[in-house]
């Protein structure tokens, strides 16, 4: 029995990693990214359910992972790192989109950019041990108007919605728009109307 090796086609092996994740591996990259985003969003939903349905005190409402690892909810560094990783992934994966899908993807990117700024403010306060506006805890700008739990559930929702719209238009391009060259995401490109 001979050992077989898996080799990429020569055209794929010559591609940069950026071209691969925005071309032949774009579908897998988007599935992985979507799973991560959904898991994070579910944590915020679980926290909201704990507060508003189960009537738990806010301090004990930590989502699912926070029940086992309470430090995760209080770690500004962890939240900032997640916001930064999301922002970077949005930027890297943007090259796989075109037309309407690109527009919606970039809307999600810019909303995430602001979300990242808010987390950077929180992280800065945690590092320098000086909270803005005389607050007893780190506080972001929009958090002055909307409580933190609701605000971050809102941010994750308003980032997720245009992201999903972008993926829809990416998988089902509008008439006159073709799918991204070399990307396997489009299910069946729409035929232009006669």
Précis, in short:
With 194 residues, the chain is mostly helical. It is built from eight helices and no strands. Helix 7 runs antiparallel to helix 8 (148-171).
How large is the count of helical segments?
8
Element-by-element helix/strand order = HHHHHHHH
Low-confidence stretches: 1-10
The first-to-last residue Cα distance is 56 Å
Tell me about the biggest sheet?
none
Helix content: 55-70%
Number of strand elements: 0
Shape: elongated
Q: What is the count of distinct domains?
A: 1
Structural class: mainly alpha
Q: How large is the share of residues in beta strands?
A: under 5%
> Mean of residue pLDDT?
85
Radius of gyration: 20 Å
Describe this protein's structure.
The protein has helices at 10-13, 17-21, 26-52, 65-68, 71-74, 76-93, 99-128, 148-171. The chain is mostly helical and 194 residues long. The chain has one domain. α6 runs antiparallel to α7. The chain crosses the membrane at residues 77-93, 153-172. Keywords: Membrane, Transmembrane, Transmembrane helix.
Features:
mainly alpha, disordered N terminus
Task: Describe the protein's topology.
Layout: H1 10-13, H2 17-21, H3 26-52, H4 65-68, H5 71-74, H6 76-93, H7 99-128, H8 148-171
């Amino acid at each position: 029995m001979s050992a077989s090796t898996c080799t990429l086609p020569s055209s794929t092996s010559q591609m940069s990693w950026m071209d691969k994740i925005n071309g032949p591996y774009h579908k897998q990259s988007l599935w992985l990214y979507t799973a991560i985003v959904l898991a994070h969003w579910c944590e915020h939903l679980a926290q909201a359910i704990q507060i508003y349905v189960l009537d738990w005190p806010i301090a004990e409402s930590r989502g699912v992972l926070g029940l086992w690892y309470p430090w995760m909810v209080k770690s500004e560094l962890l939240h900032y790192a997640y916001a930064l990783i999301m922002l970077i992934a949005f930027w890297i994966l943007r090259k796989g989109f075109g037309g309407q899908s690109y527009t919606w993807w970039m809307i999600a990117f810019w909303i995430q950019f602001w979300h990242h700024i808010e987390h950077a403010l929180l992280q800065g306060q945690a590092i320098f041990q000086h909270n803005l506006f005389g607050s007893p805890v780190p506080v972001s700008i929009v958090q002055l108007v909307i409580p933190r739990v609701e605000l971050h559930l809102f941010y994750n929702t308003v980032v997720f919605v245009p992201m999903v719209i972008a993926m829809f238009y990416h998988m089902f391009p509008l008439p006159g728009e073709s799918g991204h060259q070399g990307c396997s995401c489009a299910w069946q490109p729409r035929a232009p109307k006669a």
